[in-house]
Design brief:
With 100 residues, the chain is an all-alpha fold. The protein contains five helices and no strands. The longest helix has 23 residues.
Length: 100
Amino acid sequence: MGIIALTYARLASDTSAVLAGSFMGVWGFIYLASFLYFTRTDTQGFSLRWAVYMGIWGALWFAAVTLSNFIFQGEVWFAGLMAALLTLSTTACAWYEAGR
């Protein structure tokens, strides 16, 4: 969500912080809901799967930041796509881990 907010802010310098705050609020809600639901899983510790999950997140985040600054500069559709991929991957990994 931060990627969308930063791209949007770059395009319109006179924008309100409400949109960026709303995007971050959605991500914060997902984080809080996941934390409350998966507390039992957190106490069991991390495994090799955690490193894979973090690798997926890191690769997507790096691609989003790098490509949005150099190739897709100012392209809101790209920022939205990358934000959706980041949200999908992190949420799917968390739900999969909780179901184990």
